[in-house]
Design brief:
This protein is mainly α and 175 residues long. The protein has a single domain, classed as Tetratricopeptide repeat domain (Serine Threonine Protein Phosphatase 5, Tetratricopeptide repeat), CATH 1.25.40. It contains eight helices and two strands, in the order ααααααααββ. A two-stranded antiparallel ribbon has the order 1-2. It starts with a helix and ends with a strand.
Length: 175
């Protein structure tokens, strides 16, 4: 009986390609590198996201979307200097995107630049018309850091970056 079950499992199925990946579809269309990069960031695969955004740059050029994606991926990897540079370049190309300003503010908070981070979050909040809770929370944190900038070991709190939406980061306090 077991032999019949095993043989029936080997029956030819026209949709079964075997153990190998499907071949290249020559008339198929590639998925946009920005979409792939965003999905990889959502999955926490920041190195692969950088590769996807780089491929998107070959097709689109270094526009604000590609630069912001590269900056967000570098932020996820903790490469704050690179993330800051890329996000500032994205803002030069499109200064009306609150999510880019927000991510730049997160980088600045992580670097201890509380004054500039507060100004950046204010701009992001204004561009977003106050609709984003994440930006508002990040602005509150920057203001709190400005009011109490000194290091007090008894007040030490741990924070982590949390991805919210497609391209926003939120700073959360770890309990």
């Amino acid at each position: 009986m077991a032999v019949i079950m095993a043989l029936s499992a080997c029956a030819e199925n026209p949709t079964d390609q075997g153990p190998y990946a499907p071949g290249i579809v020559k008339d198929g269309e590639a998925v946009d590198g920005l979409i792939v990069g965003q999905r990889l960031i959502n999955a926490g695969e920041y190195d692969l996201a950088i590769d996807a955004y780089t491929r998107a740059a070959l097709k689109r050029g270094l526009d604000a979307d590609v630069l912001a994606g590269l900056g967000s991926a570098n932020l996820g990897l903790g490469r704050l200097g690179q993330a800051e540079d890329l996000l500032r370049r994205a803002i030069e190309k499109d200064e009306k995107r609150p999510e880019i300003w927000n991510n730049l503010g997160v980088v600045l908070i992580e670097q201890g630049e509380y004054g500039e981070a507060e100004q950046v979050f204010r701009r992001a909040y204004a561009l977003d018309n106050g609709e984003s809770d994440a930006i508002r929370d990040n602005l509150r944190l920057a203001i709190a850091k400005l009011e109490k900038p000194y290091y007090d070991e008894s007040q030490e709190q741990a924070y982590k970056l949390v991805r919210r939406g497609s391209s926003e980061f939120l700073i959360h306090k770890i309990p």
